[in-house]
Design brief:
Layout (H helix, E strand, L loop, with lengths): L1 E2 L17 E6 L4 E6 L7 E3 L15 E8 L13 E5 L20 H9 L4 E4 L12 H8 L4 E3 L9 E9 L8 E10 L5
Parallel strand pairs: 5-6, 6-7, 7-8
Antiparallel strand pairs: 1-10, 2-3, 4-8, 4-10, 5-9, 9-10
Helix pairs in contact: 1-2
Length: 192
């Protein structure tokens, strides 16, 4: 099993200039930890509220996914897969204390292509599915169609191919714009 989760705490991405913080409080008997962070820290799933939409998306626990490089998007057969995980070639080089605003992301043409393929999930190594300077169009395009977006995944050591992906999100009762997630892959086939 390959863990593609980027840690939620430990000096990695944050969007609002407030890094994730863990605080410990001790009493006579117990120590209790508190976590303060953006829901967009580390690996996470963007939900419709992120772009002001009031609708639901269906998140599954297990997806059949294709891992592919962003430059080979049009070359792979997406028949029989629920989702796509996009390698940007930047991998863990992006894992620093601030966002590199020049990260690789989807353009509108590729986003429309993936919507036309009826994906149930789109994931990307980058901290966002669209450019840092984006206006939210690509997020809205996917989320309006009920396609959740898995961002900030680590595909650096993952070969292109078909996988089963196990996706677990934090269970939050309130309506939120994103859910912190853990994602793991199991390779399907013999080419790895």
């Amino acid at each position: 099993m390959i863990d593609i989760t980027v840690p939620h705490v430990g000096g990695f991405y944050w969007w609002d200039d407030k890094p994730p913080v863990v605080k410990m409080s001790s009493s006579e008997k117990f120590t209790i930890g508190y976590l303060y962070m953006s829901l967009h820290s580390g690996t996470h799933v963007d939900l419709p509220m992120h772009v002001g939409l009031d609708q639901e998306v269906v998140l599954k626990d297990i997806y059949s996914v294709q891992v592919v490089g962003i430059d080979k998007l049009y070359e792979v057969d997406l028949a029989g897969v629920d989702g796509i995980l996009i390698k940007t070639g930047q991998g863990l080089s992006l894992m620093n204390r601030t966002i590199d605003k020049d990260y690789v992301a989807l353009n509108e043409e590729k986003a429309h292509y993936l919507v036309s393929k009826k994906m149930l999930l789109v994931g990307i190594e980058a901290p966002s599915i669209e450019r840092y300077s984006g206006d939210g169009y690509i997020h809205t395009l996917f989320l309006k169609k009920g396609i959740p977006i898995l961002e900030n995944i680590n595909l650096e050591s993952v070969r292109e191919g078909k996988y089963k992906m196990f996706l677990f999100t934090l269970s939050i009762v309130d309506t939120v714009d994103a859910l912190p997630a853990v994602a793991k892959l199991v390779h399907v086939g013999r080419d790895e």
